[in-house]
Amino acid sequence: MLKLVRIALGAIFLAAASFAHADERPAIKVAVDNLWPTMDPVIGISTTGARVHSNLFDTLVRRNRWEDPEGTTLVPWLAESWERKSPNVWVIHLRDGVPFHDGHVMDADDVAFSMSEERLWGEKPLAPRGTRYARGIVRVEATGPLTVEIETSTPDPNFIFRLVTPLGFVLPKHYYEEVGTEAFGQMPMGTGPYKLVSFDPSVSVEAVANDDYWGGSVPAKSLTFQIVPEYSTRFAGLVAGEFDVIVSVPADQAEQVRNTSGVKLMEKSIENYPMFAFNTLSTELLPDNPLVDANLRKAMVTAIDRDGIVEALWGDKTFVPAPFNFPEYGQYFDPDRKARFTYDPERSKELLAETGYDGRPLVWHITRGFYPNYEIAAEFMVEQWREVGINVEIKIVDNFSLAYKRPFHMLNMSMSSEFSGDPYRPLWMDWGPLSSRTRASHKTWAPTDRFLELGMKFESAQEFDARNSAYLELVEEWENVTPGMYLWRNVVSYAAREDLDWDPGNSAVTIFDDLYLGSS
Amino acid sequence: MTAYILAKLFRAAATLLIAVSMVFVFIRFSGDPAAALAPPDAPQEVIDQYAEAMGLNKPLWQQYASYLAGLARGEFGYSIHTGRPALELFLERLPSTLRLGSAALLIALAAGIPLGSFAAINRGTRIDRFAMAFSVFAFAMPNFLFGLCVILGGALIFQVYFGGTDASVLPAALTLGLAAMGSFARFARSSLLETINAPFMRAAEARGVPYMRRLAFHAAPNAAIPLVTLIGLSLGALIAGSVVTEQVFGWPGVGQLLVRSVATRDIATVQFIVLAVACTMVLVNLLVDLLYLVIDPRIRSR
User: Fold this and answer.
1) From CA A135, how far away is CA A116, in angstroms rounded?
2) Closest CA–CA distance from residue A124 to any residue of chain B (Å)
3) Which ipTM did the prediction report?
4) Contact (CB<8Å) A230/B250
């Protein structure tokens, strides 16, 4: 009998000892609405992809959102330093001794491959969606074990900013070439704080701490993203302690989360701006489109009290931007610059009187539930247009390909601003001659000659003053035409357990490394 | 009898062909799959590249012909998102769907048929009215509402999460089985009532057959015929999973796969799931028809 007790005591002691050695870091579980089908950081560009793959991969350069929610400062990451060798050539010096998840050490060949012609910008690239970020690149070359040279066709003073975008993710060349593009996206491997264990795009992603992480300790022992399509179920899982973080709290459910004990709500305004484009073109299916007249478009913009609508729907969570005047653009951002066309019903009526608008209904295509609060705002706006005598009909459709189906007078969309050091993307990439606004089957405008000319000037300007003045002129021309109207800065919301020391900054990307997640 | 079976077989094949053709056409007309795959702001070239890779730039009849030819060879195509065979994706999901579905069916049968029979035997009494009120409620209660009540109640009151496959299958199965239980109960009741009042039952009574024996060996087999049809249909539906219940409980089954595949226009996967469901339905119907031959001698002699 005594022997039995002794054995039992011994067993308990052993169990206790092994418990003390067990990993005390939390296992973080995130309930998401969806997962992108591939975790390749370029093919998988999307919110549902980036919030996962940014934990598996590192970029060459990062933004400091852990210190500043807007993340306006560049932080050397896999790239330790860089210099501009000549106006068109940048040299990047890589960090030494950074292992991929299989132990293979990253070198210049991996970086050159990640940004290569073959993968991103050639004739038939492996990841065609990278072309946009790689525009103008003509040569990427490993010039030493840890040095890479990148040459652009025209001088780009802000090139380094691109390395925080998906262009900057470094992939292991040896592994990618061994398994191929598709398999890589299903079983990705990077240098990031977490390494993948399993990925089923319709169920979950499971990753564990990469304990050889070059960037130091990893604050959670594992990280799981699990699809729970229904918001109420995600919320129930959070309250019951199944999940640590849940994404996409609907705007009308925010109050409930605030009033539930043990959980907290996080609302972040992000670099994306819901808007709508006016269809300024007369097409076969829309032969005498009244919106061809700029005065009607301006009358519509001045009829809307955007500040009032945003205040009512969002409180102080977000704001109405003056066209292309976005806070993420540092010195280009001017808090005092106002939009030229703002709420002014009298002016709206005057402008309307100058048009030949006959009161016919203008059809507005809106994708159901895509942008939080968009449909409600649209209802308000339709009423305000009715007050000045403009008749807008909302047509809500289930997906974008239906929204793009002509005929329509107005089309919902959003524009991401992309952190590129200046407003190049939202203004020139999104409205310029190469944009889908101009070229896609659902195009809505043709840039004026003056817009093209100013854009060229903006693109080639090297110094801040020249670039800034070209930018302001370009905005002025955009407002002359008014091919669209920006509504507000988009808001993403998370709910998390109250004691979780984690803050993603103003971003839809959820990173759980030790800069964002406290190790409590 | 051979003619009866041949006619049923022919009808089954025609049903399948119509089902796959309709899905083929509708999924292509309800939105461009290439555009659904690319993000909303993708330039036209990217969309075109996707279309080319997926063979969507070929004329519709060519796509249709190669699809049918593939089916004949037993090739069901590949998911455009994961590059994996649609069959494999489906089979992966099938076990959890079957687990949930069979638990739900079991609950529905085990509770529904006794409830209905009990109501029929006690026809017109308070028990009958209560049982029927309950089964109408069960049938009419939308399962997304009941499911949400279950899952939110569990979390907010008991701090227990009922979603996902780690949890017990019971809450989800109860939600899914509730409606079926209601309809089993009502069918069982009306079918049993009809047989109880049939002349042969009175004849049996006159012959002095004891009450319980009359119920078990005379009434029940006759009442079973419509129930067999109903159970057959439920079995067929089992494969399709439950779109709503799986969605609410975060249950990774075939239903969720279908919703997701439709939303992302994953053509091969949607086509395969519909084909699989249609096949099962047709097969079950065929089996039910054959089962009639066994349980109903009148059909056999026709």
Assistant:
1) 12
2) 9
3) 0.79
4) yes
